[in-house]
Amino acid sequence: MFQRELTFIERHWRILAVLAWALFAAWLLYTKWNNVIGFVLTDTDDNMRMSQVRAWLNGGQGWYDLRNYKLNWPVGADIHWSRLVDLPLAGLILLGRLFTTGPHAEQFAIAVAPLLPFLLLIVALSLTVRRLVHPAAWPLAVVCLFFAGSATGQFVPTRIDHHGWQLAFLALGIAGIADPKRARGGAVLGIAAALSLSIGLEALIYIALAGGTMVLFWVAERDERRRLATYAASLAGGTALGFLAFASYANRLPVCDALSPVWLADALLGGALMLGLAWWSPAKWQARLGGAVVAGALVIAFHALAWPHCLTRLEGVTPEVQQLWLSHVREARPIYQHGWRTALVILALPIAGLIGWGALAWQRRGDPDLLRRTLGAALPAVAALGLLFWQVRTGPAAQVLAIPGAVTLVALLAPLAFAAKSGVVRVLGTTLAVLAGLGALVPLAIDYVAPPKPKTERDRIIAKANSSCPSLWAMRPVAELPVATIFTFADLSPRLIAVTHHRAIIGPYHRNGPAIVDSMKIFRGTPDNARSILAKYHADYLLTCPMMSQSTVFVAEAPKGFYAQLAKGQVPAWLDPVDLGKDSPLKLWRVKP
Predict the structure, then answer these.
(1) Which residues of 152-166 are buried (b: 16+ CB within 10 A; e: fewer)?
(2) Is the pLDDT of residue 1 over 60?
(3) Do 546 and 491 form a contact (C-beta atoms < 8 A)?
(4) Cβ proximity of 160 and 113 under 8 Å
(5) At what angle do helices 549-557 and 513-524 cross, to 10 degrees?
(6) Among positive and negative, which fits the CA dihedral 245, 250, 252, 255?
(7) 219-261: pLDDT as tens digits
(8) How far is residue 433 CA from its own chain's centroid?
(9) Residues pairing with 591 in the sheet
(10) Domain boundaries, given as residue ranges, for the chain
(11) Does the pLDDT at position 69 exceed 80?
(12) Which residues, 6 or more positions from 53, have their beta carbon under 8 angstroms from its beta carbon?
């Protein structure tokens, strides 16, 4: 039964995968169309990315100069990103300008740009499922993405920052590990890792695990030396090219939070050692294991001795920045600090995937090559699940890496249910098997068994402020003022500089720790302290958004602080109110000299 359909799906998977992407993309565009029209970039990073691309395209800023001069003017704020993600966004803007005006060209770009890595993600997941599970099972991976909200949310229109590309390259690397063709698989993994490093270090742990997996493949099977050699060459060469092409002026220093001489040297040394191991390849596995241990120890010792300052957290923030700012970033908290409902929704798919990966490994235990590739592809998924108990920001990666395992679980459970004699059992059992295997059963059951509590009036006010203050209509009266330096919340600054011609002081970016501390102290300290800090940054205006999430923190933690006084209407004489209209959710004051 269904053999003809399965054969069709298997044979024409490339065309069908692209078609599935097109349909999925159309649905995402439909659901986010209002955001595209309203130029709603909901994340601070998306606004900063747009500001960065504009400075390059319109402002004549250099390719390697990634300081944002609309923050902390005239010095600028150093941003640790690279130009790699700017390229498709800038290309789409230039393409859009061929047939429409500037603003509409940007709308076109923010609508399409996130969908490009989404295509790569679908293809990469399909390849992994075809290679490890079944050649015709890949459509289940696409279906699974509907229930992987944390992951799919990184590819929706207007989500233009680098996170989608990082997930796509991570999935591509897993497809390389799963590739039965050793030389090709190693090259794909190395290239994906190099591109990921060129963007940022978010996937560094997974890249390290993948590198270790390539070495262990070689230890277990001498013939894996071709995979190891192509991986080593493509990783070292690709990382070197990525550094030359995309490392900013700031990243040419030995910084720890981006591709810099630190990680370039590690990649070159590791690549050279792995090439040496592949060339050596002794017959006995014990000798290969000993060589691998020595090579790993050399890389670790080199990193520790050459870059001791990079043995701590990559952000390198001070305890004060950690206390005042980073500790309040929700995505930087472990999953158990987000409430049971949120935790279960995020964990459902990774746990289902983990079970599926285990079942798949058990199925492949009789084929050493297939078992090896299955375990290698599963290892990052296990790590991602564990990392959720460190920071919840690993949720999208945990969901993406869980999908091949989840597909396996469906492939095992659904046929058992479908074989039942009763038609009701077949339909109900198959439906439950699919939902359970794809990690969707738990979130659906939670909403049915324990519906979420209605939002309080306070919750609704905060949500309204979070959405209305960054809106174009709210920012329009501010944009009509002559260009000035405006001090505002760190979470509002990127939006301010993205939709107006004004300058701001600081955004939520860890390299600018002293300014972040100053911004926290302004709102938590005394009015006199606030005035001196505003003078330090030559601020012309002070802009706030009452009841925005960040403002509630200031009131809660400093109930007698400067912001809490402003919220009560206690405005010092050195601030003059600026009328933004009676319906404006924003509050603006001119700072008197």
Answers:
(1) bbbbbbbbbbbbbbb
(2) no
(3) no
(4) yes
(5) 60
(6) negative
(7) 999 999 999 999 999 999 999 999 999 999 999 999 999 999 9
(8) 30
(9) 575
(10) 115-425, 466-591
(11) yes
(12) 86, 89, 90, 93
DSSP reduced 3-state for 452: coil
Runs of H (alpha helix) within 66-162: 86-97, 102-112, 115-132, 138-147, 149-152
- Cα separation values, 382 from 364, 375, 379, 546, Å: 18, 10, 5, 42
Looking up tokens 């920012």 gives: 475
Q: What's the Rg (C-alpha) of the chain?
A: 26
The correct CATH number of 466-591 out of 3.30.980, 3.30.70, 1.10.287, 3.40.50 is 3.40.50
Cis peptide before 117 (omega within 30 of 0): no
pLDDT per residue as tens digits for the range 343-384: 888 899 999 999 999 999 999 999 999 999 999 999 999 999
CB neighbourhood size of 422 (10 A): 9
The rounded distance, in Å, linking the Cα atoms of 124 and 136 is: 15
Q: Which pTM does this prediction carry?
A: 0.94
Helix axes 285-306 and 261-280, enclosed angle (nearest 10) = 160
Could you tell me the two tokens for 587? 């509050």
Sign of CA dihedral 573, 575, 576, 577: negative
| SS3 state of residue 575 | strand
Q: Which residue has the tokens 């746990």?
A: 351
d(CA 152, CA 45): 17
* CA 228 – CA 164 distance, rounded (Å): 27
Place of tokens 């991976």: 141
| Helical spans, DSSP H, in 247-367 | 261-280, 285-306, 319-324, 340-363
CA–CA gap between residue 274 and residue 108 (Å, rounded): 44
Q: Which two tokens stand for residue 182?
A: 């050793």
